[in-house]
Amino acid sequence: MIVIIAIAIFFYLIVVLSKRSSEDTLVDIDFSKIDDMEGHRFEYFIAKVLRKNGFKNVNVTKASGDYGVDITANKDNQKWAFQCKRYSSNLGLKPIQEIYAGAKKYEADKAVVFTNVYFTPNAQTLAKTLNVELWDRDTLAGMIGKDPETKQSIEADMEEEQTEPEQRQRKIRDNGVPLKLQKNQIPAGDYVVGKDIPVGVYNFKWVFGAGSFQKYKEEGNTTLGACTYFEHVGVQYDYEYSQLINVNCKDGEWIKISGNLVLGIEKSEKPVIDL
A GO BP term, please (predicted)? Predict the structure, then answer.
């Protein structure tokens, strides 16, 4: 009898300590910055979380025509399809239905809905039936806080999202990039082709920082191709972009560069790639 009681107490302590550890992780992470993210920025944030957790070939899909799949990635010899939902209330059935269909379209082995909140009971039941994985607020906290290096890197990205343009320029200087950029270098910001950047075909190359490059047909409307995320490319980051070549920049299009990214820009004489 004493042995049985001891075993019961042992398992009870495991459950309690595990729950407390999970709660401590949630408290230790500032979710307010995540909860305030714009939807597309949340997708790029999740992409970085996935990269830091061993996923390779992490790609954010086009803003339109993505069939409900926001990110594709590879891990454990399997292709994964993710739908990312930054919400203020628990998710219902629709995201599960969308990612289930979208994963088939992308021929993915795994379908996941990743969110900053939780899921309704009906959503959990449907996900189990369709074999869709549900990654909620607790999952996100665990992936961010799994080790100090990962947590520090991701929190730095969260902090950058809150940085004002003037502070962003100061950060560039503080990290060793001259205040006066070279003539062929452009920092994060919004640019109009034909006004800020001459019409033409260009190569964009990473110089400093991290952030995304996106073209728009007009200010804030109609994205032209998928966003491209730039970060330093080296031994540890060989899955990040370091350049975009032969980008056709047409009159009136808008170019948005985010984060603290600085890109080099040069004319290209090669065939055009429309983004």
Answer: DNA restriction-modification system
Q: Are 139 and 181 members of one domain?
A: no
Which residues, 6 or more positions from 27, have their beta carbon under 8 angstroms from its beta carbon? none
Cα dihedral across residues 89, 92, 95, 99: positive or negative:
positive
- Token digits of residue 116: 């900053």
C-alpha dist (Å) from residue 149 to 20, 57, 140, 145: 22, 21, 16, 9
Closest CA to 263 of 220, 221, 176, 202: 202
Instruction: Dump pLDDT digits (tens) for 15-28.
Output: 444 444 444 444 46
Domain boundary among 161, 193, 226: 161
Question: pTM of the prediction?
Answer: 0.54
Give me 188's structure tokens: 């994060």
User: 231: closest CA among 272, 263, 187?
Assistant: 263
Q: Which residue has the tokens 């983004």?
A: 275
Number of domains present in the structure of the chain: 2
CATH number (domain holding residue 183): 2.60.120
Helix (H) or strand (E) holding 23: helix 2-28
Using one digit for the tens of pLDDT, what is the confidence trace for 241-273? 567 778 888 888 888 887 777 888 888 866 554
Residue 152 CB coordination number (10 Å): 9
Q: Is residue 4 part of a domain?
A: no
